[in-house]
Amino acid sequence: MKKLVFILIGFVPLLTPAQEVLTLEECYALVEKNYPLATKAKLLEEKANFDIKVLEKDRLPKLDINAQATYQSDVIEFPGDIPNANFETPNKDQYRATMDANQLIYNGGSIAARASLKNAEMKTLQQEVAVNLYELKGRINKNYFNVLLFQEQINLLQSKMEQLEARVKEVESGVKYGAVLASSQQVLQAEILKLEQQVTEADFTRIKALNHLSQLLATNLNERTNLVKPNIFINVTNDSDRPEVKLFELQQQQLETSKTVIEKANYPKLLGFAQAGYGNPGLNMLENSFEDFYMVGLKVNWNIFDWGKTKQQKKAVDISKEMITTEKETFKLNNSINIKEAMSEINKYRELLQSDSGIIEMRKKVLEATTVQFQNGAITSSEYITELNNLYEAEINQDLHEVQLLLAKANYKMIKGDLNQ
Questions:
Q1: Is there a contact between 115 and 245 (Cβ–Cβ < 8 Å)?
Q2: Predicted confidence (pLDDT) at residue 408 exceeds the cutoff of 60
Q3: In a domain? residue 11
Q4: How many whole angstroms separate alpha carbon 351 and alpha carbon 236?
Q5: Which range marks the domain in which residue 338 is found?
Q6: Which parts of 41-183 are beta strand (E)?
Q7: Is residue 15 part of a domain?
């Protein structure tokens, strides 16, 4: 029988849901991996590769098959008085089938320029994805520290319950022998029941916030998941490194590449061509019969005057670049203001925490004296609970300010763009 009991005890940990541990850095990594938008970057690269392959097809020869049958109202005729000549009048119905081949030999690097533009567009769109994913980290911060706050509150409430349960045990014997009124024990037990309600309420709120975080990370998180309080170091000397700044730079590079495409569009194009065919008449218009024929050659296409179209297009691109520069400078200015505000939040919670320590120290001394008085029957349980609540209110405020300080630091790093540092 004893062996069976030991075996069952050994299986208890296996039957209890395992408690998972999750860090803030792991949350950042999960959202970049699992969020649906994260797959878009890879899809953009695949699309760009296909688009470039399509462009490269322009270097290959183009083959066309053409066929036509016509009937014309008139044909060339030769006067009958030409000496020693006997020309047959061509038929009014004529037939021709040809295979035409055109091979691009030179186009001024237009294909390479358009391929570069496709790459530039891909990088810009991928950076837009990176910006959107980065903005999600602000929502992660809010949800993560919200869960962490309720997690800390639950720990404090449970610690408070333990102290009250210890006081209940102390007064039980006094109530038993009539030295202490039963109401004293009942007041303490009622307070314990009230704390159990608060723990239940806080835990439901914690699970709700945890579910929000789970949805954001596209990961199933165990309800027993324990979030780790991060150790966040901020560096006020580093320059801002937001992904939006890189996006502005890539947008300008893309526009500069588009100017090259505009220039290359007016370069001369040299093509080789060949034609093989069968028809009546063939190339010899005087031979009124079905003949096969062919021709090969070179041709140049060069638009030497475009009425200033290229110049105007390049000016439009330059204006677009100036607009992006303005947006970039505006973003940097606003970001600098946000960094200062975030630093002000950090300093505020640092000062609050300094005063929290003093308040808690004094409340602990008051509670120690109150506990002795309660144990000696000098005060009622209600008076003891009042001082206990004062201490735990101060400790909850301290925990709140600690979490708010961590959130302020995390937001500061996100605003500054140094989450990976």
A1: no
A2: yes
A3: no
A4: 18
A5: 26-72+90-416
A6: 62-71, 93-106
A7: no
Q: Residue range 228-232: average pLDDT?
A: 91
Residue 341: count other Cβ atoms within 10 Å of its Cβ: 13
Instruction: List, for residues 137-160, the tens digit of each pLDDT value.
Output: 989 999 999 999 999 899 988 988
Cβ partners under 8 Å of residue 199, min gap 6:
154, 157, 158, 161
Domain count, the chain: 1
Domain of 296: which CATH number?
1.20.1600.10
- Beta strands (DSSP E) in 33-72 are 62-71
- Number of Cβ within a 10 Å radius of residue 224: 12
Give, to the nearest 10 degrees, the angle between helix 309-375 and helix 110-176. Answer: 10
Residue of 73, 110, 151, 33 whose CA lies nearest to 270: 110
DSSP, residue by residue, 139-161: HHHHHHHHHHHHHHHHHHHHHHH
Percent of the chain with pLDDT strictly greater than 90: 57
Task: Identify the DSSP state of 345.
Answer: H
C-alpha span between 127 and 324 (Å, rounded): 15
Tokens standing for residue 126? 């991928």
Query: What is the phi/psi pair of residue 98, to 5°?
Result: -135, 155
Length of the chain: 421
Whether the Cβ atoms of residue 317 and residue 259 lie closer than 8 Å to each other:
yes
Tally of CB atoms within 10 A around 385: 20
State the Cα–Cα distance between residues 84 and 89, nearest whole angstrom: 16
**CA 309 – CA 320 distance, rounded (Å):** 17
Tokens 């947008």 locate to 251
pLDDT on residue 326: 97
Among residues 147, 91, 144, 65, which one has the least CA distance to residue 411?
Answer: 144
- Quote the CA–CA distance of 418 and 239 in Å, as a whole number: 9
83 part of a folded domain: no
Residue 402 domain-assigned (yes or no):
yes
- Going by their DSSP bridges, the two strands 226-227 and 21-22 should be labelled as parallel
Classify 307 in phi/psi space as left (phi over 0), alpha (psi -120 to 50) or beta.
left
In angstroms, the CA 35 to CA 167 distance is: 50
Name beta bridge partners: 68.
96
Q: Burial of 144 by CB count in 10 Å (0-12 exposed, 13-18 middle, 19+ buried)?
A: buried
CA angle 132/138/142 to nearest 5° reads: 145
- Does the pTM exceed 0.85? no
